[in-house]
Automatic annotation (TrEMBL):
Name listed for the protein in its UniProt record: HTH merR-type domain-containing protein
Native species: Enterococcus pallens ATCC BAA-351
Lineage: Bacteria, Bacillati, Bacillota, Bacilli, Lactobacillales
PANTHER family in the record: HTH-TYPE TRANSCRIPTIONAL REGULATOR ADHR, REDOX-CYCLING DRUG-SENSING TRANSCRIPTIONAL ACTIVATOR SOXR
Stretches assigned to the HTH merR-type domain: 1-69
Record keywords: DNA-binding
GO function terms (MF aspect): DNA binding; DNA-binding transcription factor activity
Gene3D superfamilies: 1.10.1660.10
Length: 134
């Protein structure tokens, strides 16, 4: 299947697929006569994997490293696992940070709902006075 068909099927643009191949996110796609890309099921599987991992928050750099390791064969299994574990740990840390932020926002919203917002905001400096701005 050509790049336009593959892009449509995978829900990405042809530009994205060219980028994925150029930076090494997917292995080189086989070419037909004249250099036209001929996407096979294996290529589509890689694209789906990349989309899934990107939507999970993995960086392009980590995915390039993963793809490179994968192409080196089973000798890199532990290294690939380690890479995915590190990415998971970073995502868990972000998740926990987001959870804490949501809790703070929920508390602030409750202050507004309970009429306590004025008490909470009295602790903030008054930015309208000259003294507070200096």
């Amino acid at each position: 299947m050509n790049i336009s068909e593959a892009a449509k099927l995978m829900g990405v643009t042809a530009v994205t697929l060219r980028y994925y191949e150029r930076v090494g996110l997917i292995p080189p796609v086989t070419r037909k006569n004249g250099g036209v890309r001929d996407f096979q099921q294996e290529d589509l599987n890689w694209i789906e994997f990349i989309k899934c991992m990107r939507s999970s928050g993995l960086s392009v750099e980590s995915l390039i490293e993963y793809t490179t390791l994968y192409q080196q064969g089973d000798a890199t299994l532990e290294e690939r696992k380690r890479l995915l574990q590190e990415e998971r740990n970073q995502l868990v840390a972000k998740y926990e940070e987001i959870g804490a932020t949501i809790q703070r926002l929920n508390g602030k919203i409750e202050d507004y709902e309970n009429g306590k917002f004025q008490e909470a905001e009295k602790r903030l400096p008054d930015w309208t006075t000259k003294e507070a701005m200096s």
